[in-house]
Design goal:
Number of helices: 7
Order of helices and strands: EHEHEHHEHEHEH
Largest sheet: 6 strands, parallel
Helix content: 25-40%
Radius of gyration: 16 Å
Distance between the termini: 24 Å
Structural class: alpha/beta
Shape: globular
Strand content: 15-25%
Number of strands: 6
Length: 200
């Protein structure tokens, strides 16, 4: 069975909840499974080693998780229009995969959660796409043919799912959940379609 790696960093749980909804969408596709992974915090003072297994939530990601996946969904809270430092730190360790083209030709997409309506959701999603494009991945978004994208009054963008977590971390809206699941399903379908395709 092929899998979609759902790689995320979540400080307060909103991005993790999105990751779980995306996993539900992935697993709607026969022959596909979801592999949830997170990344450890980074020290603000010096380089420090986290325990190899977190106390709660998904296991920490390894380069093997990336190498073995058929597709990637990558999520982060919005930090000044960019991804959070722990996720960027992990991506900076993927040079060996870039050298050997380990991710080239695989579908990938991004998702985010932000604490304010103008917190930089779309800038964050776009900035997260850049390293994936350098790896030669094929970017998957959410088309306007998905009704929830046109109806949502909370999160949701063509660039990938988003969640507005202002005012005490409210629950994800039904539209946000629908978009996460649709995104996961779309990514899984794309991965299946590309499995035996040589893009040169």
């Amino acid at each position: 069975m092929a899998d979609i790696l759902i790689l995320y960093y979540s400080r307060n749980g909103s991005t993790a909840k999105m990751a779980n909804q995306i996993a539900r969408g992935v697993e709607q596709v026969n022959g596909m499974s979801a592999r949830l992974r997170t990344v450890p915090d980074v020290s603000t003072v010096c380089e420090a080693q986290q325990d190899s297994i977190p106390e709660q939530g998904a296991p920490y990601a390894t380069l093997d998780d990336l190498r073995e996946c058929s597709g990637l969904a990558m999520g982060s809270p919005t930090h000044f229009g960019n991804m959070a430092a722990p996720l960027k730190y992990f991506l900076d360790s993927t040079t060996s995969l870039w050298f050997n083209g380990g991710l080239a030709g695989k579908p990938a997409g991004v998702f985010t959660s932000t604490g304010s309506i103008h917190g930089g959701q779309e800038a964050t999603l776009l900035s997260m796409m850049l390293p994936l494009m350098h790896h030669g991945m094929l970017i998957v978004g959410i088309p306007s043919s998905q009704p929830a994208l046109m109806e949502t009054e909370t999160g949701g963008t063509p660039y990938g799912p988003s969640h507005l977590s202002q005012r005490g971390n409210p629950p994800h809206s039904e539209h946000e959940k629908t978009l996460c699941q649709a995104f996961g399903k779309r990514l899984a379908v794309a991965a299946l379609a590309l499995q035996d395709v040589d893009l040169g």
